TrEMBL record:
This is TetR/AcrR family transcriptional regulator. Residues 14-74 form the HTH tetR-type domain. The lineage of its organism: Bacteria, Bacillati, Actinomycetota, Actinomycetes, Pseudonocardiales. Keywords: DNA-binding, Transcription, Transcription regulation. Residues 37-56 bind DNA.
Amino acid sequence: MTQPATTRVARRRDRRKAEIVRTATALLSEHGYQGMNLEDVAERTDIAKATLYHYFSGKDELVAAVIEAMTTEVNQRLEQELGRVRDRSHLEQIRTLMREQIRILTDTAPEVAPLFSWPTTWPDSFQDTIKDSRRRHDAIFRRVVEAGLAAGEFDCPDADVALQCLHGVLNQSSLWIRPSLPPERKAQLWDAVVDTASRMLSLRAASAG
């Protein structure tokens, strides 16, 4: 009887911890690092502030958990979409990644944009964490771009410059493709951004888009 009871306790703890992380994510998105505090997290989660310390030692540990959770979720979604088109051309693969990234930023998880896509003031203690998050995210796109270059499918002169420009285009899309737009209009804009951004990698993308 002890093991099932222990398992149930662990599941409840995991659910509560995930709820706290979701609440902190919303607050970070709304107010940034400086504006987020544990009192608001506790109030929105409907628990005592002291209870938070059963799950996280303090604000920085909670924020680190938010960054890791968001990084993992976004990257998993990108990898899942990439897996669907892995047998297709590199151009189709990168277009699929771009479209999913835009969909995340402007539709399914707009809270990602204020934390990762726009210039944000993070304390020095988080600079390495944010850099690592962006490096892991970039690696998914970079893998496809470098494979496309090796296969002769892409002809951009500098992969690093192309990737920087590509991320810039995708991030900026979250500023004007608002979640409140009708789904049909959002889909049209997603396609337009993907078509335009694809041309940074290959002139052949212009005719394929």
